[in-house]
Design a protein that fits this description.
alpha+beta; 14% strand; six-stranded antiparallel β-sheet; 30 helices; eight-stranded antiparallel β-sheet; globular
Length: 695
């Protein structure tokens, strides 16, 4: 795992820009760095070495497309000396690659390529990826098993090919900006065109394509002018994460998962989707055979994810996902190290750490743990938001920051359990359609009226009644449903505070609200792709496209890389999905249980109590903290400050704080706004890197 960056329209005089882009993400790669400038392209790389420690340096350059062509790299050690495999640091070639991630089946692919006559100089997955692209073109993507974001430069064609992995495990950001000497050229609007699938201009305008693993790298390029994208704020309030392809920075976009793009010589950007998850339920397969298939697929995936030239550890929480995965890894490597965090408030109780320690003893494996203190949690918030690049309102991101911190002191890579819930039906909200069936007899209008009455009276059940009167398409767009802001609540916060142009175009406050897309309008095209499937599966599919990539995987990548640690996710493997997509609803979720078949499979590796444990999420004591005078006053100062007044109706913000202090739970809504304000101050007011908390 590493950090990559680069841009087209480059010349030798741009080397300091490339160096600055690499330096700002030094945390992603402490083991080496490399810059490549040739033929109008600049490619940068920071390396965290895990496979072929001596030979896998980047950028990796190949002399030509011949099967015995020589490869080299301009990479340097941090003391400025050339690294092994970089003996000719000034060498150039027809092809060059920068790659972030891991190709777990690279040995299989290498054997296949060698059988076709391709020669290799290193033992790295990077060289296999580059050679596979030369052999199979874009078709190499369907052969990959791993996580990846990469860019390959073809000097002869003057084209840059970029791709992101199937599920969006690794990030890839880009923008298209005005080229050197062009009076009128592509700006943020050109990037928007690219996000739609195409962007172009005459060669004379020479728009620059700029990309990186982190947004903060793009901010180092002088062609980009920092501007806030308020459209992202609108959706963030409802989703609790950045839900649009365009980020909070105007004109900077995310390459969506399972997409690739080609930047042509004339600046045209062509984007396309190379893979799409599809369900094909096997209704004839028995429950036992389904469980067998899941267990076999996960054990094989763990074995592939254990491929490295360094030690691979594992996270271990109280949940079945990490417990099952760690137990499978222990079969591959009995000496594994596992890592757990909890909160000091719960020390001595039956918390994450007590569950993890007990299972570690049962499996005979090592476990390191840490109780996060109240002060260190709050002190870490600015640094966490800086690393996230965009505001993140998930309180558990801070817990990830600390568990990654303790793991990085012992290992360079860990396995983590992300993806199991989305694949195998793990969220309790997926049981909602079963609960709704109990009211299927009632007229929809009656249910809607009862819901409004319950909400007006402040009694429980309003959400249940509303959802029973609707389909998931009407109400479900994020796993934060019910705790994030509804569109109506968003309007109370934002009315009269939108950019002048937006309100003017709308013509009135009501028109401004109507001009803001609803969350449902964003998820509607995704729902349409699986309209023929059951309601729970439709919810899973939406989570694959929004919650998983926008919240879960983003914090997984950013928090691990903050500590130069690689986080590997065995559940998010195409071979595991090939099994998950065939599991019918009856073996995933019912009115009583979630992850039915996965739980049964996990009992082959972990005790029954762990396998059948109810999913609780990660308990963060923010609810209680925000009722303490100390934190109430701290957040209130932010909620009445100049940034809050610019974007929100502060009376509404203070009302939320007061209601929470009085006993209602408004913690998630408070956190959503608080994290945005903190992030905005870091990136648009102070524009400095927050101090790193003491380890």
């Amino acid at each position: 795992m590493c950090g990559i960056c680069g841009f087209t329209g480059a010349s030798e005089s741009d080397r300091p820009i490339l160096k600055a882009m690499c330096d700002i993400m030094a945390h992603r790669g402490p083991d080496g760095e490399g810059q490549y400038l040739d033929g109008g392209v600049a490619l940068g790389h920071r390396r965290l070495s895990l496979i072929d420690l001596e030979g896998g340096n980047q950028p990796m350059v190949r002399a030509d497309g011949g099967r015995d062509a020589r490869t080299t790299s301009p990479a340097l050690a941090l003391d400025g000396t050339p690294l092994a495999g970089a003996e000719d640091a000034s060498a150039t070639g027809q092809y060059a690659i920068v790659f972030n991630g891991e190709i777990y089946n690279y040995r299989d692919l290498r054997a296949e390529l060698e059988a076709q006559g391709w020669a290799f100089k290193t033992h790295s997955d990077t060289e296999v990826l580059l050679t596979g692209y030369l052999a199979w073109g874009e078709g190499v993507l369907s052969r990959l098993r791993g996580m990846f974001a990469f860019a390959i430069w073809n000097r002869e064609a003057r084209e840059l090919f970029c791709a992101r992995d199937f599920f969006g495990i690794k990030p890839f950001y880009y923008t298209v900006q005005k080229g050197k000497g062009a009076a009128d050229a592509a700006d943020g609007d050109a990037a928007a065109d690219a996000a739609d699938g195409s962007a172009g201009a005459s060669a004379a305008t020479a728009p620059q394509f700029i990309f990186a693993s982190e947004i903060k790298c793009i901010l180092e390029h002088p062609a980009y002018e920092r501007r806030l994208n308020e459209a992202a704020l609108e959706q963030y309030l409802c989703f609790q994460f950045s839900a649009l392809d365009e980020t909070f920075f105007k004109g900077i976009f995310k390459l969506p998962p399972a997409h690739c793009l080609t930047v042509r010589a004339d600046g045209t950007v062509e984007m396309r989707r190379y893979w799409r998850p599809a369900y094909d339920f096997d209704e004839r397969r028995s429950r036992k055979d389904t469980v067998d298939a899941i267990d076999k697929a996960l054990r094989e995936s763990v074995r592939y994810h254990n491929v490295a030239d360094v030690e691979v550890g594992s996270f271990l929480s109280s949940g079945i996902d990490s417990s099952y995965m760690a137990a499978c890894l222990a079969k591959e490597n009995p000496a594994i190290k596992t890592f757990t965090v909890g909160f000091a408030e719960y020390e001595g109780e039956r918390d994450e750490i007590s569950w993890a320690r007990e299972l570690a003893d049962e499996l005979g494996i090592e476990n390191d743990s840490k109780h996060i203190g109240e002060d260190e949690y709050w002190e870490s918030l600015p640094r966490v938001q800086w690393h996230m690049d965009e505001p993140s309102a998930d309180p558990s991101a801070v817990a990830l920051y600390f568990v990654d911190q303790i793991a990085a002191k012992r290992v360079k890579a860990v396995l983590s359990g992300e993806g199991a819930d989305e694949f195998f039906g793990g969220y309790r909200i997926y049981q909602t359609p079963f609960a709704n069936k109990k009211l299927a007899w009632a007229p929809k209008g009656l249910l809607r009226g009862a819901s409004k009455a319950a909400r007006a009276l402040g009694v429980r059940g309003a959400n249940y009644l509303a959802r029973a009167s609707e389909t998931p398409e009407d109400w479900y767009y994020t796993n934060a449903n019910g705790v994030a802001f509804s569109p109506e609540e968003r309007e109370r916060l934002r009315a009269g505070k939108r950019a002048a142009g937006a309100d003017a175009n709308a013509g009135s406050a009501a028109g401004a609200a109507a001009a803001v897309p609803t969350p449902q309008s964003l998820t509607a095209p995704v729902y349409a792709e699986v309209a023929h499937l059951d309601e729970t599966t439709r919810m899973q599919y939406v989570d694959l496209h929004f919650w998983l990539v926008g919240d879960i995987l983003l914090k997984t990548d950013k928090m691990s890389m903050a500590h130069s640690l690689e986080s590997r996710v065995p559940f998010l493997d195409t071979q595991v999905f090939d099994i998950a997509r065939t599991v019918p609803l009856v073996f995933k979720v019912d009115g009583e249980q979630t992850k039915i078949a996965l739980r049964e499979a996990s009992e082959r590796a972990i005790p029954h109590d762990w396998a059948q444990k109810e999913k609780l999420g990660f308990p963060v004591p923010v609810v209680n903290w925000l009722r303490q005078e100390r934190y109430y006053n701290m957040v209130k100062e932010w909620f009445t400050g100049p940034e809050a007044k610019r974007f929100f109706n502060t009376d509404e913000l203070v009302r939320l704080l007061d209601e929470h202090k009085a006993g209602a739970d408004r913690s998630r809504k408070i956190w959503i706004v608080y994290m945005f304000l903190m992030w905005y101050r870091i990136y648009f007011v102070d524009r400095t890197v927050p101090e790193k908390p003491a380890a």
